[in-house]
What does this fold into?
Amino acid sequence: MSIVLPGSTIGFLGGGQLGRMAAMAARTMGYDVHVLDPEAQCPARPLASQVITAPWGDAAAAARLAEGVDVVTIEIEQIPLPSLEAAERFAPLRPGPQVLWIVQDRARQKEWLRDHGFPLGPFAVVRTADEATTAARALGPCILKATTGGYDGRGQARVTAVDAAGPAFSGIGAPVCVAEQFLSLTAELSVMVARSPSGEMRAYPPSRNHHTQGVLTWSVIPGGFEDAVVQRATEIACGIAEQLAVVGLIAVELFLLEDGSLCVNELAPRPHNTYHHSERACITSQFEQLVRAVCGLPLGDTEVVRPAAIYNLLGELWTGAQAPDLAGVLGLPGVRLHLYGKKEARVGRKMGHLSACGDSSDVALERVVDAYRRLSISTAEV
It folds into this structure.
């Protein structure tokens, strides 16, 4: 196995905020960066010496990116298979096409997890309104999710009555959906695992997460879970990384149920919103770890050296009567601001996040929540 040493060039399929932050880490370590993204002014553009502006489905553009770099990685999993295969012909693609093909379709992902013995909540794959009705009758209250294209709560519908399932399926407008039974949760958590080409693996401690309407609101590490939960969550996540033969990162989102058991929600083979706090909390951030993993370097220490939390900043903060008081929150103890360089603020669009450290997870979370509340008050219409 050859190591891709600093001084080489990393190609990113995707130049959004994840690509931007990973590119920052790559630049710090001495790598050049090339990016392919549909947006000419994508967030990673200032970090890249070359940007190819093209749709994800442009296989020729993906090949052109790979021809000019030493290794290719991703920041978004929804890259069509022909583009992935085109890139792989010219440079190592990490993670590989097979991993992405499994993960980018919810039905394939669920079926792969089930077939490999990983814990899941009850689900059904539905292709018609009648099948959705049948699934709702069998599962009870459930959520319908489009198998492709849905992200941050989009492409989903909650179903609490059987007769609402058919119209909900039709309203989503996707040819195939997954119906997932509502579960009684005590917590949402995630585990990030890095895996190198040699098979070396490092797992980050579980992060505790809170979502609002399918979009991550805040996340904190350490998550404050019992040792048995930490051990089991880590075993599940590492088992998935090994069985998939991931090279790079994979975030495993899990539910902690009221009976103390865990089940997998979904997978993301890339940097993940729930580990942005790793920049502040851990010896090695998830972004540096991605660079290490895809370049075949030794993986970094994932120990938490100080508790940290993040709070997402959505576009509505910038669409009110006045701009958010960013300078004001930066005066608060332990708080930092991370903006993604996006030119247009829209409701629901992730524009950045706040992070905070503290002597405990509770303190870190209190600080970042307080900072966000101050921003929200500053943008309220008067």
The CA atoms of residues 302 and 317 lie 33 Å apart.
